[in-house]
From TrEMBL, chains A, B:
It holds the Pfam family ACT_9. It comes from the Bacteria. InterPro entries: AceGlu_kinase-like_sf, ACT-like_dom_sf, ACT_Aspartokinase, ACT_dom, AKii-LysC-BS, Asp/Glu/Uridylate_kinase, Asp_kin_monofn, Asp_kinase. Pathway: Amino-acid biosynthesis; L-methionine biosynthesis via de novo pathway; L-homoserine from L-aspartate: step 1/3; Amino-acid biosynthesis; L-threonine biosynthesis; L-threonine from L-aspartate: step 1/5; Amino-acid biosynthesis; L-lysine biosynthesis via DAP pathway; (S)-tetrahydrodipicolinate from L-aspartate: step 1/4. It catalyses: L-aspartate + ATP = 4-phospho-L-aspartate + ADP. GO terms for molecular function: aspartate kinase activity. Its EC number is 2.7.2.4. Keywords: Amino-acid biosynthesis, ATP-binding, Kinase, Lysine biosynthesis, Nucleotide-binding, Transferase. Residues 342-400 form the ACT domain. This is Aspartokinase.
């Protein structure tokens, strides 16, 4: 059985950690696992490289930025392979390109187009541990590319898919919890979660795995294990809903505190005006989310959406342009709200989940403002001050 | 006219230096030069990477070491290309492999097998400055390889050869001097020097350019300019002897203080014994040089050779094995000698150069011990204490 292990930057932050991972992999290999390791850059290396680039240019050329950033992972995999060799374990490091990973799309956020696993397989067949630089590949022009946020997870799942392998994502948390344990210490660890729920939770701000990687897992039906490095296998397994027996309406709660809510009020009703507003926002490449629109009794529009606090400067520019273009609109930014979301594939078959959510909040005197729903999630904004109570009450209600 | 510029690590030691080089290149490009830049790793990067590897393993796997070290140059070229882009100058960075450099031979000391310049040419034709990572290439297995000491010079000359270009090596000295100016401050800068003399001087310890790069220049008749970065063109040009008009017997003096002289005395005369001694030395891959052998009047052999001080630990192991194998021999290591060498292609046509050298030394009461000669050089060992006097007297005698 081939297993793809992925180790993140914090698991490989220094040379001692690299040696520990090497020794762990060596033991598993001795026990018969055929192992492909996908490694990220050591610790904060990628950030340091980006800082250097920013000192050269405010907006560094992205082809060159990719080539620069890719060196981080190349260094880790070479060092990890040396460490395995030092332990007497045959191994070989490969860059994304050497590993057969072809990408398409823009530099710094490319997507994996295809994986040709024949080089990896030939090394596995010669008894080697194969160590692949995550986060990177090569496009058809022969340029080095990177995959953007969470790219190493995507590399790992894509390699697992091409090898018909299991994928194991090792990180510094010991699995996926129904609620962030830093917020709700009684939160339960989830043993099994469906791809859909995991994607929804990732989208809604639970920072453990990137959506794209989970999506790829779903597409190619790759079982993805998420757990702590060097620990027992008591983490979380992400798989198809069909394979999960448990039947709960809600699997997890996520909190997103990194948001501004933008309210645009008393707009004269006009589709072209609304479209114009979103065109302008789109031009600035703002990540906007949780859009809701209501028609008031007066026949005007109330429009609101959330956007990330980290994109504040972009948002301000966008709003300035909006105000210039559409003089009639009034815009308010609220920074004292958080988004609380309940995710669960069971929601589809359990009716009355939304009612139960709103009842629970109301009984505890927690006002909620904007509401959006998807097939498997309900999100609403509440005041920051109610974060703890709302989480606890909802967790108790849905047995999380 | 295509020109290959090579910048060493000290010219690119920090981001400000990289920006300065970018601005210099940009101006030359505006003035019409088609420029290919070969860059080394920034400052001490390569040493730092080797240190990391040594912390993982005393003898790191050399394939992985190559892949690790190659990231240094990849980083520099990406940053330099960003800096050019920032100045509005179109440019592209290429790894050794992307630039079409194929290597053969062992990892960490590969040789360039061939250069396919078509990618470089296509970028030049589109008006770009092309920036190539020095010191590296890819072997036929697709592994990243490095070229060993002075590898970036070799990359630059090989690219120049494949492009029919001139090669300009920019460094932190302003040219090649007849004698190291730190030893003899009146030393003259050499305007033209032949490939042969330059190779001999490099071999004899003048640390400016690696022999291999000069050899390659000779083979493909690439004119090589050596001078200081960002300065006027008043350095040294290395070219064919035919193109040099000047007719002096001696072009330069080199001093090598990094040597031990090993004397083996009173050996019974036997070819197989001498061969056995060199076989043993060869097994330890010691760089031995300046071998001299004399038959004494008593019919025994005196044998001596020089070897690098930096290889002391290897030498000690070799001597131990020699003593075990050949119990009859007595070995003495002398560490108080230096080698002084006079190099000049003119020596071939000027008779009596050796006599003039020895006379000069004798007149100044400077004893000289071991002597070796090649077609274009005379070397002898003298005491460290006589370094200054010997250099000055010989420089005056030969007008250097």
């Amino acid at each position: 059985m081939i297993v793809v292990h992925k180790y993140g930057g914090s698991s490989l932050a220094d040379l001692d950690k690299i040696k520990n991972i090497a020794s762990h992999i060596s033991k598993l290999s001795d026990a018969g696992e055929q192992i492909v390791v996908v490694a990220s850059a050591m610790g904060k290396t990628t950030n340091k490289l980006i800082e250097m680039a920013k000192k050269i240019s405010e907006t560094p050329n992205i082809r060159e930025l990719d080539s620069l950033m890719a060196t981080g992972e190349q260094q880790t995999v070479a060092l990890l392979s040396m460490a395995l060799n030092e332990l007497g374990k045959k191994s070989i490091s490969l860059t994304g390109s050497q590993a057969g990973i072809t990408t398409i799309g823009h530099h710094t956020k490319s997507r994996i187009k295809s994986v040709d696993p024949k080089i990896i397989i030939s090394h596995l067949n010669r008894g080697k541990v194969v160590i692949v630089a995550g986060f990177q590949g090569m496009n058809q022009k022969g340029d080095i590319t990177t995959l953007g946020r969470g790219g190493s997870d995507t590399s790992a799942v894509a390699l697992a898919a091409s090898l018909g392998a299991r994928c194991e994502i090792y990180t510094d948390v010991d699995g996926i919890y129904s609620i962030d344990p830093r917020v709700y210490s009684d939160a339960k660890k989830i043993k099994y979660i469906s791809y859909e729920e995991m994607m929804e939770m990732a989208n809604l701000g639970a920072g453990i795995m990137e959506t794209r990687a989970v999506e790829l897992g779903k597409k190619y039906n790759v079982p993805i294990y998420v757990g702590e490095s060097l620990r027992d296998h008591d983490g979380t397994l992400i798989l198809n809903q069909d394979e999960i027996m448990e039947d709960k309406p809600i699997t997890g709660i996520t909190l997103n505190e990194d948001i501004f809510m933008v309210n645009i009020q008393h707009l004269p009703y006009s589709e072209s005006l609304v479209a114009g507003i979103f065109n302008t926002l789109g031009k600035f490449e703002l990540n906007i989310d949780m859009i809701s629109q209501n028609i008031t009794t007066a026949g005007t529009l109330d429009l609101s959406f959330s956007c990330f606090k980290r994109e504040e400067s972009l948002l301000k520019k966008a709003i300035e342009e909006l105000k210039n273009k559409f003089e009639e609109i009034s815009i308010e930014i609220k920074s004292d709200l958080i988004m609380i979301s309940l995710v669960g594939i069971g929601m589809v078959s359990h009716s009355g989940v939304a009612a139960k959510v709103f009842n629970t909040l109301a009984e505890n005197k927690i006002p909620f403002y904007h509401i959006t729903t998807s097939e498997i999630s309900i999100s609403c904004t509440i005041s920051k001050d109610h974060k703890k109570t709302a989480t606890e009450m909802l967790a108790r209600e849905f047995d999380l």
